[in-house]
Amino acid sequence: MSFRLPFTSLAVAALAAALALPAAAQERIKFKAIGQPLATGLIQKNKEQPFFENFAARTGLPIDVDYKPIDTLGLKDTEQLRVMKAGLFDIVSLRVSQNSRDEPTILGLDLVGAAPDFATGRKVSKAYFDTIDARLQQQFNVKLLGVWPFGPQILFCKKPITKLADVKGMKVRVYDQNLAKFIELVGGTPVPVSFADTHQSLSLGVVDCAITGPSSANSAGWPEVTTHQLPLGFQMALNGYAISMKSWNSLKPDQQARLKTAFEGLTEEIWKYSEELFQDALNCNQGKDPCTTGKKFKLTSVAVTPADLELVRGAVTKVSLPAWAEVCDKSNPGCSQKWKATVAPVLGLK
User: Fold this and answer.
1) Which of 17, 42, 53, 83 reaches 20 to 30 Å from 276, CA-CA?
2) 283: which residues sit within 8 A by CB, 6+ positions away?
Protein backbone atom coordinates (compact mmCIF):
# COMPACT_ATOMS: atom_id res chain seq x y z
CA MET A 1 0.00 0.00 0.00
CA SER A 2 2.90 2.32 0.65
CA PHE A 3 3.42 2.98 -3.08
CA ARG A 4 0.12 4.95 -3.03
CA LEU A 5 1.27 7.55 -0.52
CA PRO A 6 3.49 9.61 -2.79
CA PHE A 7 0.70 9.57 -5.38
CA THR A 8 -1.85 10.70 -2.79
CA SER A 9 0.48 13.43 -1.56
CA LEU A 10 1.01 14.60 -5.12
CA ALA A 11 -2.73 14.58 -5.77
CA VAL A 12 -3.42 16.60 -2.63
CA ALA A 13 -0.67 19.07 -3.52
CA ALA A 14 -2.01 19.40 -7.07
CA LEU A 15 -5.55 19.92 -5.79
CA ALA A 16 -4.35 22.54 -3.29
CA ALA A 17 -2.48 24.36 -6.07
CA ALA A 18 -5.53 24.25 -8.33
CA LEU A 19 -7.75 25.64 -5.59
CA ALA A 20 -5.22 28.35 -4.78
CA LEU A 21 -5.27 29.70 -8.34
CA PRO A 22 -8.83 31.06 -8.31
CA ALA A 23 -8.25 32.46 -4.81
CA ALA A 24 -5.23 34.41 -6.04
CA ALA A 25 -7.20 35.58 -9.05
CA GLN A 26 -10.04 36.71 -6.79
CA GLU A 27 -7.73 38.95 -4.81
CA ARG A 28 -7.72 41.41 -7.70
CA ILE A 29 -10.25 44.21 -7.28
CA LYS A 30 -12.44 45.34 -10.17
CA PHE A 31 -13.63 48.96 -10.37
CA LYS A 32 -15.92 50.62 -12.91
CA ALA A 33 -15.04 54.20 -13.89
CA ILE A 34 -16.83 56.97 -15.78
CA GLY A 35 -14.45 59.07 -17.89
CA GLN A 36 -14.60 62.47 -19.55
CA PRO A 37 -16.37 62.57 -22.93
CA LEU A 38 -14.19 61.43 -25.85
CA ALA A 39 -15.23 64.65 -27.61
CA THR A 40 -13.35 66.81 -25.09
CA GLY A 41 -10.04 65.83 -26.64
CA LEU A 42 -6.44 65.49 -25.58
CA ILE A 43 -6.57 65.49 -21.76
CA GLN A 44 -9.02 62.59 -21.87
CA LYS A 45 -7.06 60.81 -24.62
CA ASN A 46 -3.45 61.36 -23.50
CA LYS A 47 -3.66 61.59 -19.69
CA GLU A 48 -6.88 60.20 -18.26
CA GLN A 49 -7.52 57.09 -20.35
CA PRO A 50 -3.90 55.78 -20.19
CA PHE A 51 -3.94 56.26 -16.39
CA PHE A 52 -7.07 54.12 -15.98
CA GLU A 53 -5.99 51.53 -18.53
CA ASN A 54 -2.71 51.06 -16.61
CA PHE A 55 -4.31 51.54 -13.21
CA ALA A 56 -2.57 48.68 -11.39
CA ALA A 57 0.86 49.81 -12.60
CA ARG A 58 0.18 53.48 -11.86
CA THR A 59 -1.16 52.87 -8.34
CA GLY A 60 0.77 49.76 -7.32
CA LEU A 61 -2.56 48.22 -6.31
CA PRO A 62 -4.23 44.98 -7.50
CA ILE A 63 -7.07 46.93 -9.11
CA ASP A 64 -8.32 46.56 -12.67
CA VAL A 65 -10.54 49.36 -13.94
CA ASP A 66 -13.25 49.07 -16.55
CA TYR A 67 -12.98 52.65 -17.86
CA LYS A 68 -15.60 54.12 -20.20
CA PRO A 69 -15.86 57.74 -21.44
CA ILE A 70 -19.31 59.03 -20.50
CA ASP A 71 -20.37 59.67 -24.10
CA THR A 72 -19.99 55.93 -24.80
CA LEU A 73 -22.16 54.89 -21.84
CA GLY A 74 -25.47 56.44 -22.87
CA LEU A 75 -25.44 58.56 -19.70
CA LYS A 76 -25.74 62.34 -19.55
CA ASP A 77 -22.78 64.17 -18.01
CA THR A 78 -25.28 65.89 -15.68
CA GLU A 79 -26.12 62.53 -14.05
CA GLN A 80 -22.70 61.54 -12.74
CA LEU A 81 -23.35 62.16 -9.04
CA ARG A 82 -26.71 60.40 -9.21
CA VAL A 83 -25.29 57.20 -10.71
CA MET A 84 -22.41 57.27 -8.22
CA LYS A 85 -24.85 57.60 -5.32
CA ALA A 86 -26.82 54.67 -6.72
CA GLY A 87 -23.63 52.58 -6.52
CA LEU A 88 -23.40 51.91 -10.27
CA PHE A 89 -19.77 53.06 -10.58
CA ASP A 90 -16.72 53.18 -8.33
CA ILE A 91 -14.77 56.13 -9.73
CA VAL A 92 -15.88 59.18 -11.70
CA SER A 93 -14.07 61.85 -13.68
CA LEU A 94 -16.43 64.50 -12.34
CA ARG A 95 -17.62 67.30 -14.61
CA VAL A 96 -18.10 70.08 -12.06
CA SER A 97 -20.25 72.63 -13.90
CA GLN A 98 -22.47 69.97 -15.44
CA ASN A 99 -23.29 68.42 -12.04
CA SER A 100 -23.76 71.69 -10.19
CA ARG A 101 -27.56 71.55 -10.51
CA ASP A 102 -27.54 68.39 -8.39
CA GLU A 103 -24.99 69.88 -5.98
CA PRO A 104 -24.58 73.68 -6.26
CA THR A 105 -21.76 73.67 -3.67
CA ILE A 106 -19.27 72.28 -6.19
CA LEU A 107 -19.71 75.27 -8.53
CA GLY A 108 -17.98 77.41 -5.92
CA LEU A 109 -14.84 75.87 -7.39
CA ASP A 110 -15.35 77.66 -10.69
CA LEU A 111 -17.30 80.92 -10.39
CA VAL A 112 -17.02 83.20 -13.41
CA GLY A 113 -14.08 85.58 -12.95
CA ALA A 114 -12.67 83.80 -9.87
CA ALA A 115 -9.93 81.84 -11.66
CA PRO A 116 -9.06 83.52 -14.97
CA ASP A 117 -5.57 81.95 -15.04
CA PHE A 118 -3.83 78.71 -14.00
CA ALA A 119 -2.01 80.10 -10.94
CA THR A 120 -5.24 81.44 -9.45
CA GLY A 121 -7.08 78.23 -10.36
CA ARG A 122 -4.59 76.21 -8.31
CA LYS A 123 -5.08 78.45 -5.28
CA VAL A 124 -8.87 78.27 -5.52
CA SER A 125 -8.95 74.48 -5.89
CA LYS A 126 -6.62 74.01 -2.92
CA ALA A 127 -8.59 76.40 -0.72
CA TYR A 128 -11.96 74.82 -1.55
CA PHE A 129 -10.98 71.13 -1.77
CA ASP A 130 -11.95 70.07 1.77
CA THR A 131 -15.32 71.85 1.56
CA ILE A 132 -16.30 69.96 -1.60
CA ASP A 133 -14.96 66.66 -0.29
CA ALA A 134 -17.04 66.93 2.89
CA ARG A 135 -20.20 67.90 0.99
CA LEU A 136 -19.88 65.11 -1.59
CA GLN A 137 -19.33 62.55 1.17
CA GLN A 138 -22.36 63.81 3.07
CA GLN A 139 -24.79 64.07 0.13
CA PHE A 140 -23.63 61.45 -2.37
CA ASN A 141 -21.38 59.06 -0.43
CA VAL A 142 -18.52 60.06 -2.75
CA LYS A 143 -14.98 61.13 -1.81
CA LEU A 144 -12.96 63.71 -3.78
CA LEU A 145 -9.50 62.51 -4.85
CA GLY A 146 -8.22 65.40 -6.95
CA VAL A 147 -9.06 68.55 -8.91
CA TRP A 148 -7.72 69.53 -12.35
CA PRO A 149 -8.46 72.07 -15.10
CA PHE A 150 -9.35 71.92 -18.77
CA GLY A 151 -7.97 75.47 -18.70
CA PRO A 152 -9.39 78.95 -19.37
CA GLN A 153 -12.75 78.84 -21.13
CA ILE A 154 -12.83 81.41 -23.92
CA LEU A 155 -15.22 82.79 -26.52
CA PHE A 156 -15.61 81.59 -30.12
CA CYS A 157 -17.93 83.46 -32.51
CA LYS A 158 -19.11 83.06 -36.08
CA LYS A 159 -19.71 86.82 -36.35
CA PRO A 160 -16.94 89.46 -36.20
CA ILE A 161 -16.16 90.78 -32.70
CA THR A 162 -13.51 93.20 -31.45
CA LYS A 163 -14.37 93.09 -27.72
CA LEU A 164 -16.50 91.20 -25.23
CA ALA A 165 -19.32 93.77 -25.36
CA ASP A 166 -19.88 92.85 -29.04
CA VAL A 167 -21.81 89.76 -27.94
CA LYS A 168 -24.70 92.07 -27.09
CA GLY A 169 -27.78 90.67 -28.80
CA MET A 170 -26.01 87.42 -29.77
CA LYS A 171 -26.93 83.89 -28.69
CA VAL A 172 -24.05 82.33 -26.73
CA ARG A 173 -23.62 78.64 -25.83
CA VAL A 174 -23.09 78.23 -22.08
CA TYR A 175 -22.73 75.13 -19.87
CA ASP A 176 -23.80 76.34 -16.42
CA GLN A 177 -26.07 78.86 -14.69
CA ASN A 178 -23.20 80.96 -13.41
CA LEU A 179 -21.87 81.55 -16.92
CA ALA A 180 -25.41 82.20 -18.16
CA LYS A 181 -25.82 85.06 -15.64
CA PHE A 182 -22.54 86.60 -16.79
CA ILE A 183 -23.50 86.46 -20.48
CA GLU A 184 -26.77 88.19 -19.56
CA LEU A 185 -24.75 90.88 -17.76
CA VAL A 186 -22.82 91.70 -20.97
CA GLY A 187 -26.00 91.73 -23.09
CA GLY A 188 -25.87 88.30 -24.72
CA THR A 189 -28.55 85.60 -24.65
CA PRO A 190 -27.27 82.44 -22.94
CA VAL A 191 -28.27 79.15 -24.54
CA PRO A 192 -27.45 75.89 -22.68
CA VAL A 193 -26.07 73.38 -25.20
CA SER A 194 -24.14 70.18 -24.47
CA PHE A 195 -20.54 70.10 -25.70
CA ALA A 196 -21.30 67.30 -28.17
CA ASP A 197 -24.12 69.34 -29.81
CA THR A 198 -22.29 72.68 -30.00
CA HIS A 199 -20.56 72.24 -33.38
CA GLN A 200 -23.91 71.58 -35.04
CA SER A 201 -25.60 74.42 -33.13
CA LEU A 202 -22.95 76.86 -34.40
CA SER A 203 -23.22 75.47 -37.91
CA LEU A 204 -27.02 75.81 -38.00
CA GLY A 205 -27.05 79.25 -36.36
CA VAL A 206 -28.82 78.04 -33.21
CA VAL A 207 -26.04 79.98 -31.43
CA ASP A 208 -23.73 82.76 -32.72
CA CYS A 209 -20.95 82.19 -30.19
CA ALA A 210 -19.88 79.44 -27.81
CA ILE A 211 -17.57 79.07 -24.83
CA THR A 212 -15.01 76.31 -24.18
CA GLY A 213 -11.24 75.83 -23.93
CA PRO A 214 -9.18 76.35 -27.12
CA SER A 215 -7.88 72.76 -27.15
CA SER A 216 -11.35 71.22 -26.77
CA ALA A 217 -12.63 73.58 -29.48
CA ASN A 218 -9.80 72.48 -31.78
CA SER A 219 -10.45 68.76 -31.14
CA ALA A 220 -14.18 69.21 -31.79
CA GLY A 221 -13.66 71.27 -34.96
CA TRP A 222 -15.32 74.45 -33.74
CA PRO A 223 -12.98 76.63 -35.87
CA GLU A 224 -14.66 75.06 -38.95
CA VAL A 225 -17.88 76.86 -38.01
CA THR A 226 -16.53 80.04 -36.31
CA THR A 227 -14.35 82.95 -37.39
CA HIS A 228 -13.11 84.66 -34.19
CA GLN A 229 -11.64 83.65 -30.80
CA LEU A 230 -11.35 85.97 -27.80
CA PRO A 231 -8.69 84.43 -25.47
CA LEU A 232 -10.19 85.85 -22.29
CA GLY A 233 -10.69 83.23 -19.55
CA PHE A 234 -14.16 83.29 -17.97
CA GLN A 235 -13.73 80.11 -15.95
CA MET A 236 -10.99 77.50 -15.49
CA ALA A 237 -13.30 74.52 -16.18
CA LEU A 238 -12.11 72.75 -13.05
CA ASN A 239 -13.07 69.09 -12.81
CA GLY A 240 -12.40 66.35 -10.29
CA TYR A 241 -11.82 62.67 -9.63
CA ALA A 242 -13.98 61.04 -7.00
CA ILE A 243 -14.52 57.55 -5.60
CA SER A 244 -17.59 56.04 -3.93
CA MET A 245 -17.15 55.75 -0.17
CA LYS A 246 -18.10 52.07 -0.39
CA SER A 247 -15.17 51.42 -2.77
CA TRP A 248 -12.85 53.65 -0.73
CA ASN A 249 -13.71 51.88 2.53
CA SER A 250 -13.13 48.48 0.90
CA LEU A 251 -9.43 49.37 0.66
CA LYS A 252 -6.91 49.01 3.50
CA PRO A 253 -5.37 52.24 4.88
CA ASP A 254 -2.08 51.72 3.02
CA GLN A 255 -4.03 51.07 -0.22
CA GLN A 256 -6.03 54.25 0.31
CA ALA A 257 -2.80 56.21 0.74
CA ARG A 258 -1.37 54.76 -2.49
CA LEU A 259 -4.55 55.52 -4.40
CA LYS A 260 -4.60 59.11 -3.16
CA THR A 261 -0.94 59.59 -4.10
CA ALA A 262 -1.56 58.21 -7.60
CA PHE A 263 -4.47 60.59 -8.21
CA GLU A 264 -2.46 63.53 -6.88
CA GLY A 265 0.23 62.58 -9.41
CA LEU A 266 -2.31 62.38 -12.25
CA THR A 267 -3.92 65.72 -11.43
CA GLU A 268 -0.51 67.43 -11.20
CA GLU A 269 0.34 66.04 -14.66
CA ILE A 270 -2.94 67.40 -16.04
CA TRP A 271 -2.36 70.88 -14.56
CA LYS A 272 0.94 71.11 -16.43
CA TYR A 273 -0.36 69.54 -19.63
CA SER A 274 -3.45 71.76 -19.66
CA GLU A 275 -1.28 74.89 -19.53
CA GLU A 276 0.86 73.65 -22.44
CA LEU A 277 -2.24 72.79 -24.47
CA PHE A 278 -3.85 76.19 -23.88
CA GLN A 279 -1.16 78.26 -25.58
CA ASP A 280 -0.52 75.71 -28.30
CA ALA A 281 -4.22 75.44 -29.18
CA LEU A 282 -4.59 79.22 -29.37
CA ASN A 283 -1.77 79.16 -31.94
CA CYS A 284 -3.28 76.24 -33.87
CA ASN A 285 -6.73 77.84 -34.03
CA GLN A 286 -5.32 80.93 -35.72
CA GLY A 287 -2.87 79.01 -37.93
CA LYS A 288 0.30 80.13 -36.12
CA ASP A 289 3.43 78.22 -35.11
CA PRO A 290 4.31 76.53 -32.84
CA CYS A 291 1.28 74.27 -33.27
CA THR A 292 2.11 70.73 -32.14
CA THR A 293 -1.06 69.40 -30.48
CA GLY A 294 -3.89 70.33 -32.84
CA LYS A 295 -5.02 71.08 -36.35
CA LYS A 296 -4.30 74.46 -37.93
CA PHE A 297 -7.25 76.73 -38.68
CA LYS A 298 -7.53 80.41 -39.60
CA LEU A 299 -9.46 82.10 -36.81
CA THR A 300 -8.99 85.79 -36.10
CA SER A 301 -7.65 86.15 -32.55
CA VAL A 302 -9.12 89.21 -30.88
CA ALA A 303 -6.84 91.20 -28.55
CA VAL A 304 -8.03 91.22 -24.94
CA THR A 305 -8.62 94.79 -23.75
CA PRO A 306 -8.06 96.01 -20.17
CA ALA A 307 -11.79 96.82 -20.04
CA ASP A 308 -12.66 93.19 -20.89
CA LEU A 309 -10.29 91.90 -18.22
CA GLU A 310 -11.86 94.24 -15.69
CA LEU A 311 -15.35 93.12 -16.71
CA VAL A 312 -14.51 89.45 -16.06
CA ARG A 313 -12.63 90.07 -12.81
CA GLY A 314 -15.45 92.25 -11.52
CA ALA A 315 -17.97 89.51 -12.34
CA VAL A 316 -17.18 87.64 -9.10
CA THR A 317 -18.63 90.26 -6.78
CA LYS A 318 -21.16 91.73 -9.22
CA VAL A 319 -22.85 88.65 -10.61
CA SER A 320 -21.31 85.20 -10.17
CA LEU A 321 -20.94 85.09 -6.38
CA PRO A 322 -24.36 86.63 -5.56
CA ALA A 323 -26.17 84.46 -8.16
CA TRP A 324 -24.46 81.28 -6.96
CA ALA A 325 -24.81 82.13 -3.25
CA GLU A 326 -28.58 82.45 -3.56
CA VAL A 327 -28.91 78.99 -5.15
CA CYS A 328 -26.29 77.27 -2.99
CA ASP A 329 -27.50 78.61 0.37
CA LYS A 330 -31.00 77.25 -0.35
CA SER A 331 -29.79 73.66 -0.64
CA ASN A 332 -26.80 73.95 1.69
CA PRO A 333 -27.27 76.61 4.41
CA GLY A 334 -24.03 78.48 5.10
CA CYS A 335 -22.60 77.47 1.73
CA SER A 336 -21.59 80.98 0.60
CA GLN A 337 -20.20 81.86 4.05
CA LYS A 338 -17.90 78.85 3.82
CA TRP A 339 -16.72 80.04 0.38
CA LYS A 340 -16.08 83.53 1.74
CA ALA A 341 -14.05 82.04 4.58
CA THR A 342 -11.92 79.76 2.38
CA VAL A 343 -11.74 81.02 -1.22
CA ALA A 344 -12.31 84.79 -0.88
CA PRO A 345 -9.04 85.36 1.05
CA VAL A 346 -6.89 83.76 -1.70
CA LEU A 347 -8.57 86.05 -4.25
CA GLY A 348 -8.00 89.12 -2.11
CA LEU A 349 -11.75 89.66 -1.68
CA LYS A 350 -13.12 91.08 1.54
Assistant:
1) 53
2) 289, 290, 291
What is the distance between the alpha carbons of residues 273 and 277, in angstroms, rounded to a whole number?
6
Dihedral-angle region of residue 257 (phi above 0 means left; psi in -120 to 50 means alpha; beta otherwise): alpha
Give alpha helix (H) positions in 30-117: 42-43, 49-53, 55-59, 80-85
Distance CA 146, CA 152 (A): 18
Q: Do 26-149+238-278 and 154-235+285-320 show the same overall fold?
A: yes
Side chain identity at residue 299, one-letter code: L
pTM to 2 decimals?
0.85
Residue ranges covered by each domain of the chain:
26-149+238-278, 154-235+285-320
Are 144 and 106 in contact by the 8 Å Cβ rule? The answer is no
Type of residue found at 133: D
Asked: is 26-149+238-278 a CATH 3.30.470.20 domain? The reply is no
Contact 73, 221 (CB under 8 A): no
Name beta bridge partners: 239.
Answer: 148
Whether the upstream peptide bond of residue 22 has omega within 30° of 0, thus cis, is no
Residue by residue, pLDDT tens for the chain (350 residues) are 444 444 344 444 444 444 444 444 448 999 999 999 988 889 999 999 999 999 999 999 999 999 999 999 999 999 999 999 999 999 999 999 889 999 999 999 999 999 988 999 999 999 999 999 999 999 999 999 999 999 999 999 999 999 999 999 999 999 888 899 999 999 999 999 988 899 999 999 999 999 999 999 999 999 999 999 999 999 999 999 999 999 999 999 999 999 999 999 999 999 999 999 999 999 999 999 999 999 999 999 999 999 999 999 999 999 999 999 999 999 999 999 999 999 999 999 97
Residues with Cβ within 8 Å of 251's Cβ and at least 6 positions away in sequence, in order, are 29, 61, 259
What's the CATH class of domain 154-235+285-320?
A: alpha beta
